[in-house]
Amino acid sequence: MTESPEPRRALTAPPARPALPPGRRRLALPPGARRRWHRHPVLRFAALVTLLAGFGLLLLLAPPDLRAIPDAVDRLGPFAPVAAVGVGAALLIVLVPRTLITVAWGALFGPLGGAGYTLAAAFLAALLGFAVGRWLGRDFVAERVRGRLARLDGWFTRQSIFGVITVRLLPIGGFGLVSYGYGTTGARLLPYLAGSVIASIPSAFGYAAIGSAVVSPGSINWFAVAPASFGLFATAIIIWRWRRSTTGSASR
């Protein structure tokens, strides 16, 4: 006597996701577009170039008006330092020159306060610019650079804090642009951040003191200007080391 087979269980469809209420629809890329975005570094690198070009065009067509900042600082009261750091970082990210921000912050907060808030903004902007450059441009650079560019990328990968200071002190681009560029290289995050802040110290104190002296002539704090001499000293050392390495390479 044969046993009758057990009846198969009916397959039930998984429960449908509840519909989102009106006004809260998810904005997401289609699966195919999402895969192309992550798999094709060219698209991300093109987005980075477009972003930087847009910032540059915006800076040319609609430069920031810093004259309205003093009134905003008075309204913020005790929250003004936090706003100074945040606004300063945002301006650096959109490629506003750091000199302009430092002079304005020095005029508003004095030489020491202006320099301190500018350095905090520089740290935050360096971190954000590095993260964006690393996400959008690193894969493209790592896959396509060859020859001398590959050796240059290897130099950035091995770079110490002194190397970052060297690059930051060279007149090769604005603070924000260099931050994005560093993200596309194999540079390590901690030496990059430390070198970026250290290289910003001389000009931060110097230009903040100048901004303070503009609104309060005769009240300049020379102790605040003293760190600016470090920039001249560091630049002289960098030139000496570069000439020495060039002479050594030529003699071999």
Blueprint (SSEs and pairs):
Elements: H1 31-39, H2 41-61, H3 69-76, H4 80-93, H5 98-144, H6 148-157, H7 161-169, H8 175-184, H9 189-215, H10 222-225, H11 229-251
Helix pairs in contact: 2-5, 4-5, 5-8, 5-9, 7-9
Description:
Helix 7 (161-169) packs across helix 9. This protein has one domain. The chain is mostly helical and 252 residues long. The radius of gyration is 26 Å and the shape is globular. The protein contains eleven helices and no strands. Mean pLDDT is 79; it is low at 20-29.
> What is the count of distinct domains?
1
Task: Count every beta strand, where a strand is a DSSP E run of 2 or more residues.
Answer: 0
What is the terminal separation in angstroms? 97 Å
The overall average pLDDT, rounded, is 79
The shape, in one word, is globular
Along the chain, the helix and strand elements come as: HHHHHHHHHHH
Summarize the structure.
By secondary structure, this protein is an all-alpha fold. The chain has helices spanning 31-39, 41-61, 69-76, 80-93, 98-144, 148-157, 161-169, 175-184, 189-215, 222-225, 229-251. The chain has one domain (41-247).
Which terms summarize this structure?
252 residues; mainly alpha; globular
